[in-house]
Amino acid sequence: xxxxxxxxxxxxxxxxxxxxxxxxxxxxxxxxxxxxxxxxxxxxxxxxxxxxxxxxxxxxxxxxxxxxxxxxxxxxxxxxxxxxxxxxxxxxxxxxxxxxxxxxxxxxxxxxxxxxxxxxxxxxxxxxxxxxxxxxxxxxxxxxxxxxxxxxxxxxxxxxxxxxxxxxxxxxxxxxxxxxxxxxxxxxxxxxxxxxxxxxxxxxxxxxxxxxxxxxxxxxxxxxxxxxxxxxxxxxxxxxxxxxxxxxxxxxxxxxxxxxxxxxxxxxxxxxxxxxxxxxxxxxxxxxxxxxxxxxxxxxxxxxxxx
Length: 307
Hints:
Shape: elongated
Distance between the termini: 32 Å
Radius of gyration: 19 Å
């Protein structure tokens, strides 16, 4: 990773401090202590945190059951679940549902939505960026997610390659700063410290007052054809990338965890995911695992550990 110049580093440090890993939300003042003890603990990957906070709020309003959101990177949360055996549910993106089940940490799992890579540019697209090839222009300052530490970053070489761009050579031709967080990368563009980045559509949707999305559909990896090597050194098919929810073996309230999971995959939540920028096809919500095992006849839409 290349070091940022001082003019960029200071404001970015502030963003990191403001958007870092969140802790479980404390019960509101006046909350009944017994009710607080019954709160479900839901581990949520960073990209999914805003929509899950909204859905947890709605669920509590409808049922009276509180849900605590513990948010960090999907991979970090998986390590936390394995190491501490605490939590009722896990909301993540590919490939972590499959890894969770491979390690016998989960019970039931569903696909609830998808996320899709797009180019994020300043509102109004002042640099007139219409295609990935525009990112190679000398007048376009580019900021990307880390090529090894982020799931999307690992896809970038394939995505750029489909546009006829050698990403390694591009890094030699121009200075490209990186960060592991897509939210951080998007905020760099919001602050006018870069002209463009490549992030998930849901990341841009949260910043729709400041950013526009440029679609890169022709260059996305083809499901079941193109693959990307993950941090676990296995090959995964990552586009379109699933957003999944799983109930955990370590759940203190398995019935409560299942009830909230079923709420998340009900048709009533589809519009909420869509509002937050997630890709929602008509048949996208479906069960993938039951009792820790892949359901018969189920073919993963976007990712599966190579066996």
